[in-house]
Specification:
- With about 200 residues, this protein is an alpha+beta fold.
- It has a five-stranded antiparallel β-sheet.
- A hairpin with a 2-residue loop joins strand 3 and strand 4.
- It is globular, with a radius of gyration of 17 Å.
Length: about 200
């Protein structure tokens, strides 16, 4: 399973929740509601999306950013570089990072169907503010891969900030790639590359 499926699971499905879903006390139920919301719109417009995949960008833009913990995830991705970044650089990185993922992976939603995703119940205390939602995503060949979402609850409800695909964290993976690139080129150059549509180093 390519990383693009991971991103579909983590940032698109997690970002598509309605306000009611986003404030659910059960993150597994929230995720299932999110999937239904996204898949309903995909099924209703799949032919149009296949004809013009760029329309997926608007769908991702509308549903993603309000319901994904973009600042927290970006802070973890930048690691030590976050402390040295100016407020302007931080905001530019947050925006460029998620728009980059949207551009690189969002079009794969065209072929994402409901039978590919299985969400397992989450066991946690009533006062918990962090948890992991376990799911399985079906590969094209019929086998499954574990996809676990790191979630945290804030004033606006549960939000996803990381996804672990078959044991690999996308936050950790991007942190390693961006950290090396920033060390070599500087944060401003990396942000400018992202803003112009370039992919993270080592990503396909």
């Amino acid at each position: 399973m390519k990383l693009l499926i991971a991103v579909i699971g983590a940032v698109v499905l997690a970002g598509a929740a309605s306000a009611q879903d986003a404030n659910s006390s059960d993150p597994s139920q929230m995720l299932e509601g999110v999937a239904r919301t996204m898949l309903k719109e995909l099924d209703a417009n799949r032919a149009a999306f296949r004809k013009d995949p760029s329309k997926i960008d608007a769908l991702v833009e509308k549903d993603l950013l309000p319901h994904f913990d973009t600042e927290y995830a970006a802070r973890l991705v930048l690691g030590a570089h976050w402390r040295d970044a100016t407020p302007e650089q931080r905001q530019r990185f947050i925006t460029a990072f998620y728009h980059s993922m949207e551009a690189n992976y969002g079009k794969s939603l065209v072929d994402f169907t409901g039978d590919r995703l299985k969400v397992f119940p989450t066991k946690m205390g009533a006062d918990a503010d962090r948890t992991t939602v376990r799911t399985e995503v079906k590969r094209d060949n019929g086998s499954t891969v574990p996809v676990n979402y790191s979630m945290r609850r804030g004033p606006d409800g549960w939000k996803a900030w990381d996804v672990v695909i078959d044991g690999i964290s996308y936050v950790k993976s991007f942190r390693e790639d961006f950290g090396s690139e920033i060390d070599q080129k500087g944060l401003d150059e990396v942000i400018s590359r992202m803003e112009s549509g370039g992919k993270p180093a080592g990503k396909s």
